[in-house]
Write a structure and sequence with these properties.
Number of helices: 18
Number of domains: 2
Order of helices and strands: HEEHHHEEEEEHEEHHHEEHHHHHHHHHH
Radius of gyration: 23 Å
Bound molecules: adenosine monophosphate, magnesium ion
Helix content: 40-55%
Oligomer: single chain
Strand order of the largest sheet: 2-8-9-7-6
Number of strands: 11
Amino acid sequence: MNAPAPPFFAFDNSYVRDLEEFYVHWKPTPATKPVLIRLNEELARELGADPVALASPAGVEILAGNQIPEGAEPIAQAYAGHQFGQFSPQLGDGRALLLGEVIDRNGKRRDIAFKGSGRTPFSRNGDGKCALGPALREYLISEAMHALGIPTTRSLAVVATGDMVRRDRAQPGAVLTRVAASHVRVGTFQFFAAHQGPEQVKRLADYVIARHYPALAASPQPYLDLLAAVGERQAELVARWLGVGFIHGVMNTDNMTLSGETIDYGPCAFMETYSPGTVFSSIDSAGRYAYGKQAGIARWNLARLAETLLPLIDTDAERAAQAATAVIDALPERQAAHWLRVFRAKLGIDETGDAEADHALIDDFLRILKQNQLDFTVAFRALFHAASGDPTRLEALMTNATDFTDWHGRWQARQPARPADLLAAMQYANPCYIPRNHRVEAALDAALDDNNLAPFERLLAVIQSPFDERAADAEYAKPAPSEFTTTYMTFCGT
Ligand code: AMP
Ligand code: MG
């Protein structure tokens, strides 16, 4: 007979088992009066958990960190990282804990982790807490990214703790439960390279290969291939971000996963009017992490990963450096290939055209958007409508765009007929609904100021289905008033 299923999650904690020196065992700080604000029932089922049990008082105690479920082995993970280009040798989970891992319904290993569960040995001066607003914000944006088809950590639950946290003003505290393919970051490698040497880096690399890149285990040069494979996933990830106007906002090396998932929704936001220099983060005054800089930063971060892998790549330092440099130098071409694939889909053009000419066609459309200060999402969606036989929206946007007629002729000539699958791909490359910044803020204000979660739930429902247009949701497709966007700022202060 099979053993009875454990009441909440069937944990199987490989990180704890395989990597002893890479974390500290730690317990969450209990919450005074936990209240479940949101549970992702579909994701709970995907993880093999029962949503009804999780929403019960006993489940909420677990999601608040007040009770440790059977099989969980909570740990704070160690990592380092370059923050805005400066190396911090000791970061780590300062307000997060990895509760444990489960194998999900699709056979994939997933981390279940808390954010905001109290101080840890890595907290430095921080309080280890998370405010409710930023927890809800991460929930919304990560679920939007998932619905947009972009690899990302997910949000399983938000629980209000009943405790206040001190930020610019006192705010209700919360615990967000985050689910990830893993929480191994470029900064995790940097920590072990800086403090423990190549033997430990090798253990971590072998762990990552087994967990995320199993095909590489048989390679004659697994660590060099790992570098290339991570670069490939990140190239694809950033291209997908660019395709929906996503600005991560804080692409420090501790916020780049080895799995290729988007992680750490702090000051992120979606661009409205197309402009590659767009930055929303209050702490990014130099624009290091602007929309258009993200591919270059991914490359910079990959070079930091490469540095940690050098001793594994070749015992001869010079040969190792040469091999790693070749991988880093090949990245721009890979990034360009992913970018071209994403934007060809957005234009509804097939893969057969001349790459340079297609690149120019895409660039010229983007230039028209920039010159005419057009909303990125609205304009591409209008292009999809034009491709489906209704040019009225696109024409209305472009009435004053002098170069548009010429561009439109080139676009039509490039793809005179569009088979159904190409049109469908175009639809799924051009969402109608993204989490508009003003809508996100309004939802959070209602939740925090009026205890009213209805706008949050409504917005969540809209962005969970981003590609099919619904008349009742027309308002959610509209950009923010320009006065809103010009002064909009996002903060790290989760
Ligand atoms: P992040 O900006 O979320 O990528 O976090 C960078 C580092 O700061 C990580 O080591 C976090 O654990 C730590 N950190 C951020 N906020 C807090 C906080 N409120 N308390 C303790 N540590 C924090
Ligand atoms: Mg982080």
